[in-house]
Amino acid sequence: MSMVDGGDPTPKTCTSCRADEVCVDGSCVTVPKNCPCPQESYCNLGTSMCVVGCLEDGNCATGRICDGVARKCAEGCRTDAACGKGKICDKSLCRVGCRRDPDCGTNEYCDSVKEVCMAGCTADSACMSGQICDNLRCRAGCRADAGCTTGQICESTTCRAGCRNDMACKSGQICESLKCRTGCRSDMDCGTDSVCKSSTLTCLKCDADADEATDSTVRTSGRSVSERKVRVLCGKTDVDKVTWQQSPPNPGYYRKSVWVTTTGATASAKTNISLNLGSGVVKTFVLSGNATQTIWQDSFDYYCGGGVCAGWTYTVSADSDSDTPPKVEFGFSVSATR
Questions:
Q1: Which of 81, 195, 323, 337 is the most buried (most CB within 10 A)?
Q2: Could you tell me if residue 189 is inside a domain?
Q3: How far apart, in whole angstroms, are the C-alpha atoms of residue 316 and residue 182?
Q4: Is 167's pLDDT higher than 90?
């Protein structure tokens, strides 16, 4: 007895049947003397006569099974399929119940112990969009960031404002500790005349350059000269330089010196110095932190050919990986010793 259409298999009863009749699906049916026999009766093969009762379930009407000991049909079932939609066969009787969640309606789940449908859920798929199944109940929540709106992340199954990476933040912001804040990752994030301070990941405005000039032409006064130039390096890719063109007015024996001082640099910073002496001669130096170093000194005899004192040109350049904009002071001096 399968209920393909999901209908109610509850046996239909009869109001009254005669002694020679049986009730089959709500109708009284006469039991013939000889076989074949209708439902609710069976054929006694020894006598070929019909007997009220049963030998197997097939002898009984819909919704009834055969009691093999008593040889009588009674209301009951053998399988869930015999009970129809929303019911199960429990202890040979059909009752309202379930075996698994799909047997229940919307916003219900099947209690595996009681085998009845209960209000609630066992999986997120049973809940509406934006909800999760928690302790057998649907509630607002999430399992992953994709379950939250823009600008939110999923933390402890709850959507809250936050971020996972810088891409989730506005321009000029970075993602730190799951929150967007004003900050930077590189100097390029800070715009003109500012650098990104790596220790705080914030933009730091560079000081104005104290001496914008890059070239100088100096002559000795009283056979000696001394000059300083200050540069402010703004950013790790910034390179600044100063060029000196020196022309001693008189022949003689001179001593010259070039030195560099860095201030305002972070302790671990490396400032690279390049000294171009001309004629393809370039010398390089590295200053650590804040320091002063003489990068070139020399003594020489200076003669003026044909009465013309030509002089020479030095170019000094610097770049630094300092976390803060360092000031680089270039010094140049020439003095006659006799």
A1: 195
A2: yes
A3: 37
A4: yes
Q: Tokens 């690279």 sit at which residue? A: 272
How many domains does the chain fold into?
A: 4
If you ran DSSP here, which 8-state letter would residue 68 be given? T
Give the whole-angstrom CA distance, residue 322 versus residue 319.
Answer: 9
Is residue 85 packed enough to be buried (19+ CB in 10 Å), middle (13-18) or exposed (0-12)? Answer: exposed
Phi, psi dihedrals of residue 305, rounded to the nearest 5°: -75, 125
Q: Within 13 A of 66's CA, how many CA atoms are on the CB side? A: 17
Which position has the token pair 């560099």?
A: 260
The tokens for 186 are 């590189």
Tokens representing residue 171 in the block: 């321009």
Residue 291: CB partners within 8 Å, gap ≥ 6?
A: 261, 262
pLDDT band at 210 (very low <50, low <70, confident <90, very high): low
Query: What is the reported pTM?
Result: 0.55
104-127 tens-digit pLDDT: 988 889 998 999 999 999 889 888
96: Cβ–Cβ under 8 A, 6 or more apart, which residues?
Answer: 86, 87, 116
Q: What is the three-class DSSP state of 24? A: strand
d(CA 313, CA 199): 40
Phi, psi of 241 (to 5 degrees): -145, 165
**pLDDT range class, residue 97, cuts 50, 70, 90:** very high
Give the angle 145-146-150 at the CA atoms, nearest 5°. Answer: 80
Residue carrying the six token digits 């890059």: 214
Cβ-contact 174, 168 below 8 angstroms: no
For the chain, what's the residue count?
338
The range of the structural domain enclosing residue 280 comes to 215-336
Query: Count of alpha carbons within 13 Å of 82, Cβ hemisphere only?
Result: 19
